[in-house]
Write a structure and sequence with these properties.
With 280 residues, this protein is of the alpha+beta class. The protein folds into 3 domains: 79 residues, no CATH class; 102 residues, Beta-Lactamase, CATH 3.30.450; 65 residues, Orthogonal Bundle (Arc Repressor Mutant, subunit A), CATH 1.10.10.10. The protein has 11 helices and 10 strands. β8 and β9 form a beta hairpin. The radius of gyration is 30 Å and the shape is elongated. The relative contact order is 0.09.
């Protein structure tokens, strides 16, 4: 249907077809309805139709009714387009907030198709995790099966119901695994015309930033040399790698490390990595 177009039973079916059509006999008649009219309108570039039902006693929609309904179409288009625009702004605000903290996120509509992504997600997509034909695709077969289950759940669950979806770990070929979590869409972003149904966050999609030596020094009262050492070890570098990077001897590295242990109250390199990682 085009915007402003009014369609009734008589426009698409003959009386004989109406009498034999399963839609009337199995759906409308049992609930007391007999006649319908559809009003075409737009929500941005998407075509919609508002259908109205009448009982047999009320009678079918006639030419006068169609003229009155045609006056309703522009108002429906204005309302639907405004609701879509407001929802899109609300949705963009949600994903942009996550983008500010480098949290990749994307939004799925009620058909499970990707509606939008933020810049952090776009920067992290690769051959292991990508968008193809508006679908989120992953190379990990186990994770892909769980994503398919999530899409089935989105399609079959009413918009007003929460999605009981567990986090989905995604293994990657040469990078750390990603964890996909499902968040609800609320407020203005959740409207029938926009169709946003769920927000997915992708933890660990992007490389984590290394710890800030200045922050480490301030937090644990370390010298600049000690804080640089702690930052490099926390980023996964070995003792030999630290020595080479800082151009100091292995023994000097160990002396700095003992001093760091003393000041932080820990005794193992693994404990240091865990402690510093809390500052990232």
């Amino acid at each position: 249907m085009m915007s402003g177009e009014i369609v009734t039973d008589h426009d698409v079916l003959t009386p004989e077809q109406i009498r034999s059509d399963p839609m009337y006999n199995e759906v409308l008649y049992p609930f007391g309805f007999q006649w319908f009219a559809g009003v075409g309108f737009w929500a941005e570039s998407a075509a919609w139709a508002l259908t109205l039902q009448r009982t047999g006693r009320e009678g079918s929609f006639e030419a006068r009714d169609k003229r009155l309904l045609a006056r309703l179409a522009p108002r429906l288009t204005e309302t639907a387009t405004l609701a879509t625009a407001v929802g899109r702004v609300a949705l963009t605000s949600m994903t942009n907030v996550l983008n500010q903290v480098q949290q990749p996120a994307l939004v799925l509509n009620r058909r499970g198709m990707v509606l939008s992504t933020n810049a952090a997600a776009d920067a992290g997509f690769d051959d292991d995790i990508r968008i193809s034909n508006r679908r989120l695709m992953v190379r990990d077969k186990s994770a892909l099966a769980k994503l398919d289950q999530l899409v089935d759940l989105i399609r079959s669950t009413p918009d007003s119901h929460a999605l009981p979806a567990a986090p989905i770990p995604v293994r990657r070929t040469a990078k750390p695994p990603v964890v996909i979590r499902v968040l609800p869409i609320d407020g203005a972003a959740r409207n029938v015309f926009l169709g946003a149904r769920a927000m997915l966050t992708l933890s660990n999609l992007l490389p984590r930033p290394g710890p800030d030596p200045g922050l480490i020094a301030e937090a644990f009262d370390l010298t600049p040399a000690e804080s640089r050492l702690a930052a490099l070890l926390a980023s996964g570098m070995s003792i030999d790698g630290v020595a080479e990077r800082l151009r100091i001897s292995r023994e000097t590295v160990r002396n700095h490390l003992r001093s760091v242990f003393s000041k932080t109250g820990i005794h193992r390199q693994s404990e240091l990595i865990s402690l510093v990682s809390q500052l990232i």
